[in-house]
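Technical annex, item 7. During the second reporting period the consortium partners agreed on a shared format for inverse folding records so that results from different sites could be compared directly. Each record opens with the tokenized structure and is followed by the designed sequence. A conforming record, contributed by the partner at site C, is shown below for reference.
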């Protein structure tokens, strides 16, 4: 089973570190560094998950997430926002715009990996049937 993430990050060192980390965990990773066409790139790629920087050239991550949430089939897409701006108002704005999880930079590799795995599991775990619930 191939898991696919689109990473929208303009800082090459951060993008490469995350790409390397996720590739080692058997993810297919597409990296894109510009906000101006990020929503189109994400929609064309059809990923299982998006990692989105807040501060991007072209358009901010907030503008990108707002565009994504306007597309019906992308509304349930898990989005992890990474940012150096960790103030409460930044987090609140991101969550209001539709971000699934918010993480501040700097972050550890294990934090990113755990967040990605958790978001994927929450979004794609098979729903249990009533008979499975009764058996437990």
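Designed sequence (site C submission):
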């Amino acid at each position: 089973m191939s898991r696919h993430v689109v990473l929208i990050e303009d800082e090459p060192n951060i993008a490469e570190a995350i790409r390397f980390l996720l590739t080692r965990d058997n993810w297919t990773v597409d990296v894109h560094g510009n906000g101006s066409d990020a929503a189109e790139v994400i929609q064309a790629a059809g990923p299982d998950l998006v990692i989105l920087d807040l501060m991007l050239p072209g358009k901010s991550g907030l503008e990108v997430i707002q565009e994504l949430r306007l597309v019906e089939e992308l509304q349930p897409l898990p989005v992890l926002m990474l940012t150096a701006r960790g103030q409460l108002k930044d987090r609140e704005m991101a969550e209001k715009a539709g971000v699934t999880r918010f993480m501040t930079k700097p972050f550890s590799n294990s934090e990113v990996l755990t967040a990605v795995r958790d978001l994927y599991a929450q979004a794609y775990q098979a729903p249990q049937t009533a008979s499975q619930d009764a058996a437990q």
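The chain has a mean pLDDT of 91. The helical segments are 12-24, 38-45, 61-70, 88-97, 109-124, 130-135. All partners now use this format for quarterly exchanges.
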